[in-house]
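Researcher: Batch entry, complex prediction.
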Amino acid sequence: MLHRFVLVRLCRARERLRESDDAKLSISAIAKEAGFSTYHFIRLFQSVFGVTPHQFRIQARLERAQRLLAAVPGRLEYKLYPSCFTLMAGPAGAAIFEKRTQAALADSSRRRASHRSVRRA
Amino acid sequence: MKIRLVSIFVDDQDEALRFYTGVLGFVKKHDMPAGCARWITVVSPEGPDEPELVLEPNTHPAARAYQEALMKDGIPATAFESDDIHAEYRRLKERGVVFTVEPTRAGPVTLAVFSDTCGNLIQMYQQTSAPA
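Model: Structure tokens for the complex:
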């Protein structure tokens, strides 16, 4: 059984992984900080969170990059962002979301095409 | 009005679908594109007419913060009922599921808590005495 205290240590280690850069803080250093051997940490992390610490770190980095993109107003990602909540969708709503996404994509590629033609002119 | 949908945030919809069907044994009911994510629901094979569980992407920062705070404090995101919690516990253990609480008597129920590998703790319970 995973003791409550161990779970808290794992959750903290996950936060450290998200915040830190692998060049500055290695997985084994994080494991050590949390009081685990590297092997035990990797195994435990994967069985609780579904991914290895390394995979988690890569995902976190990608998400950071996506957030930065989304923060730029007018970007396609910004428009798509609210639709990531699907609960209110339901089977009918899902179709509406999908249509809206396709429309946003089409709109964005049209805009990109017109930018290109302006640049060419 | 009826309660037909309940939702749970997951950090990876593919992985969640794999866990909730392949490991827990629920059955996929819907899987359709919904914007940048998918609208995925699963149902229990024991009661396909019961509410559907929506595997909701946690892409919104508030969803993630909520999930992480619950997990850190050991609080389950939701609960599922079992008719034989000890058998279910053994079955899930064999499939590599990590429990934070092993089957424990708590008043009128026996409960256990496990990680769903998608960012949540899930409680499973069995009514051990007649409900009030």
